[in-house]
């Protein structure tokens, strides 16, 4: 309904019409409304998000038109051109006032929440204080000075207007009656059934207006003594929000009280969906620390969460026993039997495993430390310091300890929450840095691959030129060595035919010479294959 403020609509002189077809049928409605007075303007509400979308606001030029028409509202009008088209006409003040009240209520509650946040009180306390103030104001009666005497007729009209705008039961009844019967524009509202209905509504207003206005009939004619109505001081919107908040709070409380503990049986091996005793005991500890739950409810929840054979352990316990008795008995059966000193020794010997993250190691230390403190191995005030010392002692990641400066914080150790957050943050920072390093070096290697290939090609061509330049002298020397070896072999062959049993030393010489010859041939072939492309170029 922003159009009312934007177009500066005179709300008391306007009606809102629904059921428009945006065709010639709408002209019949406008012609019917002109009977009561001249129309100043017609505004169409075009807002798909509004509940008044495709409805029109018709503003009369004079207040006399609404004074006559308001006695008939709300009403339904059947179009003369199309019997299926039914227009609904309501006073704009009856609709717009509810919207303004709802917005005002939301703003009022938002201010109360801001006051609650600023003062540190709960929203319920601030709201209760405001309601008490409203009730105290409503119980007082203010008297107007004699100079402000209102005309009885004007006072009655204003009282009836405020009463109709506040959405009273009389207005609701009148709306229901108008919906049962429809009015046709060709029947004058001042004749026949319309006249009878108008007279009835006038009598009804005369009977209900004095009570609704809260005016004392025994007061003197010169001085009026208005009594503030609770609907004005405590608007229905505020009452509705308070009731909804109370109902919502009760629902949350009921839901909270209906929560159950996870089942525990104590079977070995432990079922997959069942917690171990330490986890179950921790949830029971939270239940025992909750002040809103009675001992009877705590005992009932503990009994409901137990399954055989754990339920068989506490069968002999009296139902009037406190929950701590049940928990102590179950802990003696399923809890750890190690004393505080043994748990302290285990805690001091816990070290980081291979491949284990520092944060995971810190979590293992915290679990063991909690058991040690519960058994009396470590004082509660030394919990944080002992955890920090053992973490610095058993963690193998010295860089992490140095970066976080943990060894310097033993005098003022952080809590477990602060310590685990700092450790996880450092782990995440390292992992991100390693990912960036891998991606960076991977791209660098791909970029350097073509340049390395070009460098290798240049080196190969340079080496080929060097080989070509120095190949001739080396080839000549190798040829001379080969001819000498051939000469030696030729001189040794006659001797081998003459002697049937050659000496072992000569055989070894021949073998070595053959090896040298094979190597020289391989070198010559390699050099010749390298030199031939350069010679061709």
Automatic annotation (TrEMBL):
CDD domains tied to this protein: RRM_SF
Region (Disordered) residue spans: 137-222
Pfam families listed in its UniProt record: PNMA (PF14893)
Compositional bias (Polar residues): 152-187, 195-222
InterPro entries: PNMA, PNMA_C
Domain (Paraneoplastic antigen Ma-like C-terminal): residue spans on this chain: 264-420
Designated name of the protein: Paraneoplastic antigen Ma-like C-terminal domain-containing protein
Organism, scientific name: Cyprinus carpio
Lineage: Eukaryota, Metazoa, Chordata, Craniata, Vertebrata
